[in-house]
Amino acid sequence: MLIARSLADLACHLSALGEREARALVPTMGALHGGHCALVEVAAGTGAAVVASVFVNPLQFAPGEDLARYPRDEAADLAALAQSGCDLAWLPSVAEMYAADDATTVEVAGPAEHWEGEHRPGHFRGVATVVAKLFGQIRPDLAVFGEKDWQQLQVLRRMVADLWLPVRIVGVPTVREPDGLALSSRNRFLTAEERSRAPQLYAALTEAAGRLAAGEAASAPLQSARERLRGAGFGTDYLALVDGPTLQPLAEARTGARLIAAARLGSVRLLDNVAV
């Protein structure tokens, strides 16, 4: 596996991959786990040359959020990427990614406006900007993202469609622990006692999704799910039934509906979603 830390090295290594018909990008912020490895494996399975980025993007963290605390383990990340079939790892510095005279960011609306967009103002601007930069640097034919960050996936799909970017966005189903907890880099911050309760988020969503699929209006199943999480010690930022692509709230299930949630357990904020 090749490793690039500067734009000059990146250009050189991309040239070395030039004989492959297609190029796939897997953007990550490091602290890799099985979910990230699944993204790389899906990318490699297409036959494309796989480039994975490891970059903790400061632009998507608001003041007071956990940028400094975000886990970092470069050696483990590189080993995981190599084992999963990555051809080139791109590890830029902040200075390499954001030049001192940068004057452009990508403003997003539509599916970015609610939920995470309200709880983390500016977050999706940071995500869209860094992903647009990665698209410009790597020039991928496809880019692979996990469905765990469902809203992020829809924001990026909307950006690519609106800006006519020649990149195919591929979503990969959420990878879970045997008890249902969605894999996340932040799970390592759960205490043992919190970890034992964390699967209640997925369980609450799954139960509500079953009731919605059976024809119930959204209000009662969502309220039951919120009460279940409150009883398990969660603080719920939101738990909602939405249209999958647009993230607009729904009063009842329909084709393409999604249950999304963000809930706090101790110091950890967990995101999850399920199809309905």
Distinctive features:
276 residues; alpha/beta; Rossmann fold; Pantoate--beta-alanine Ligase, Chain: A,domain 2; 2 domains; six-stranded parallel beta sheet; three-stranded antiparallel beta sheet; 9 strands; 37% helix; 20% strand; globular
Provide an overview of this structure.
- There is one protein chain.
- The chain has 276 residues and is of the alpha/beta class.
- The protein folds into 2 domains: 2-172, 3-Layer(aba) Sandwich (Rossmann fold), CATH 3.40.50.620; 185-270, 2-Layer Sandwich (Pantoate--beta-alanine Ligase, Chain: A,domain 2), CATH 3.30.1300.10.
- The chain is built from 10 helices and 9 strands.
- It has helices at residues 7-16, 34-45, 74-84, 94-97, 116-119, 123-138, 150-162, 192-197, 200-213, 219-231, and strands spanning 2-4, 23-28, 49-54, 88-90, 142-146, 168-172, 235-243, 257-265, 268-275.
- The chain has a 6-stranded parallel β-sheet with strand order 1-4-3-2-5-6, sandwiched between helices. A 3-stranded antiparallel β-sheet has the order 7-8-9, with helices on one face.
- Helix 2 runs parallel beside helix 3 (74-84) and helix 6 packs across helix 7 (150-162).
- The radius of gyration is 19 Å and the shape is globular.
- The mean pLDDT is 96.
Brief write-up:
The protein has 276 residues and is α/β, with parallel strands linked by helices.
Strand content: 15-25%
Quote the average pLDDT.
96
* The number of domains: 2
Main beta sheet strand tally, sense and closure = 6 strands, parallel
Segments where pLDDT lies below 50 for 5+ residues? Answer: none
Shape: globular
Task: Say how many strands there are.
Answer: 9
CATH class of the largest domain: Alpha Beta
Name given to the CATH homologous superfamily of the largest domain: HUPs
CATH topology of the largest domain: Rossmann fold
